[in-house]
Write a structure and sequence with these properties.
The complex is a heterodimer of chains A (113) and B (117). In chain A, strands 2, 5, 6, 10, 11 and 12 form a six-stranded mixed β-sheet that branches. Chain A has a four-stranded antiparallel β-sheet with strand order 3-9-8-7, with no helix packed on it. Chain A starts with a strand and ends with a strand. By secondary structure, chain A is an all-beta fold. Chain A is built from no helices and twelve strands. Chain A has strands at 3-5, 10-14, 19-21, 24-26, 33-39, 46-52, 60-61, 64-69, 74-79, 88-95, 101-103, 107-112. Chain B is globular and about 40 Å long. In chain B, the strands form two sheets. In chain B, strands 2, 4, 5, 6, 9, 10 and 11 form a seven-stranded mixed β-sheet that branches. Chain B has strands at residues 4-7, 10-13, 19-25, 31-37, 43-49, 56-57, 65-67, 73-78, 87-94, 107-108, 112-116. Chain B has no helices and eleven strands. Chain B has 117 residues and is mainly beta. The chains are: A mainly beta (113), B mainly beta (117).
């Protein structure tokens, strides 16, 4: 069975600062994908970034990067130069060999002036 | 290119009533999914489909049925709604589910907020 753990229920960051959202995972599948989604207060789920288990380099998408440490089973999201619009709920998720996306419980990020 | 759309956006039902949620995608994706999201929890998979005419149970399938008669549409039915089914329902789709490939990224619809009284 797959499991995603997000231990930070809430985080605060000042505008223009960088912030790291933690995610650890557990799986016995040899191949898996790791994802981060953003859910603003409007409710939609927005795909941010993907990391494959065999990818050698950390994924980056604009201001988002995924700090992938396979031996530690961690997939932390780093947001650089935070903006007020980054305030949202962030979910870490993974897929394995089954057709199923397993989600963590999320971290609520609040960006302050 | 609308991506994934869901209708309706909001619905209030009385206990015992039935309804169908419609999901449509225009990305020619093979795989489609229905999730529910409850407060303090991530999303949980209800049912999914790996292609037209196929469906399979997810993590929390009880009380729901699904159909995938056309590749672009995935319907979620509640035959006899219960207050425990009050939730936000999300539909998602993906090109494939070969784990470890970016093509298994799931794209979500805007959600349907359902309240069962």
């Amino acid at each position: 069975a797959q499991k995603i753990t997000q231990t930070q229920p809430g985080m605060f960051v000042q505008e223009k600062e960088a912030v790291t959202l933690d995610c650890t995972y557990d799986t016995s599948d040899p191949s898996y994908g790791l994802f981060w989604y953003k859910q603003p207060s409007s409710g939609e789920m927005i795909f941010l970034i993907y990391q494959g288990s065999y990818d050698q380099q950390n994924a980056t998408e604009g201001r988002y990067s995924l700090n992938f440490q396979k031996a530690r089973k961690s997939a932390n999201l780093v947001i650089s130069a935070s903006q007020l619009g980054d305030s949202a709920m962030y979910f870490c998720a993974m897929t394995g060999t089954a057709s199923k996306l397993t989600f963590g419980t999320g971290t609520r990020l609040q960006v302050t002036l | 290119n609308a991506g994934v759309t869901q209708t309706p956006k909001f619905r209030v039902l009385k206990t015992g009533q039935s309804m169908t949620l419609l999901c449509a995608q225009d990305m020619n994706h093979e795989y489609m999914y229905w999730y529910r999201q409850d407060p303090g929890m991530g999303l949980r998979l209800i049912h999914y489909s790996v292609g037209e005419g196929t469906t399979a149970k997810g993590e929390v399938p009880d009380g729901y049925n699904v159909s995938r008669l056309k590749k672009q549409n995935f319907l979620l039915g509640l035959e006899s709604a219960a207050p425990s089914q009050t939730s936000v329902y999300f539909c998602a789709s993906s090109y494939e589910t070969v784990a470890g490939r970016e093509s298994d990224t799931q794209y979500f619809g805007p959600g349907t907020r359902l309240t069962v009284l």
